[in-house]
Specification:
By secondary structure, the chain is of the alpha+beta class. The protein contains three helices and eleven strands.
Length: 186
């Protein structure tokens, strides 16, 4: 029996990105990309993945994920940069479940800060995930000109929406024992 490995163009999860060169958020689903203003979303830090990312124009990202958050995989090439992928959920901002990945230094720096805040407070919010709010961006001048960092902060903690639990079942199992929320205000 042959393996069913034919690629029909791929079924990819909808995703969001923060374009650090212009300081704006975009959501892509299928062939449609739309700008998003100041999103508020649930960040599933329990399922964040880190690794080496290579983004090249017109190609799917080349990613080598770390085995876990405490180890770093071997760098595949000089062009690869450290990055992350995290599941997000917001009906209002994204229309539901999306994935957010980046290897932008400015974006990775703010995610490091948010993850530290998440780790510090997770024990007192068992079975919940943080709600993150974007309130703008900050210009950062560097050797490649001006790039932008999103201004993100954890504003509260909520029960995990069932849609996020269902989406994660097809990805990796969560480290959080979820209590599903029937409805989400996000």
């Amino acid at each position: 029996m042959a393996l069913n490995l034919n690629s029909g163009g791929g079924d990819f999860a909808p995703y969001v990105k923060f374009n650090a060169k212009v300081g704006r958020w975009f959501k892509k689903e299928g062939d449609v990309e739309a700008e998003i203003q100041a999103p508020t979303f649930i960040a599933d830090f329990a399922n964040i993945q880190t690794g080496w990312f290579l983004y090249e124009e017109g190609q799917a990202p080349n990613v080598v994920y770390d085995n876990d958050l405490s180890s770093v995989s071997e760098k595949p090439s000089d062009k690869h940069k450290r990055g992350f992928k995290i599941p997000l959920f917001s009906e209002k901002s994204f229309g539901g479940y999306v994935e957010f990945a980046s290897a932008s230094t400015n974006v990775c720096n703010i995610i490091n800060v948010l993850y530290a805040d998440y780790e510090k407070d997770a024990a007192s919010h068992k079975g919940k995930l943080p709600v993150v709010q974007c309130t703008g961006n900050t210009p950062q001048k560097g050797k490649y000109g001006t790039n932008y960092s999103p201004i993100l902060s954890i504003v509260k903690w909520v029960d995990i929406p069932q849609a996020l639990i269902d989406a994660n079942k097809t990805a990796s199992p969560s480290a959080v024992t979820p209590k599903a929320a029937a409805n989400s205000e996000f």
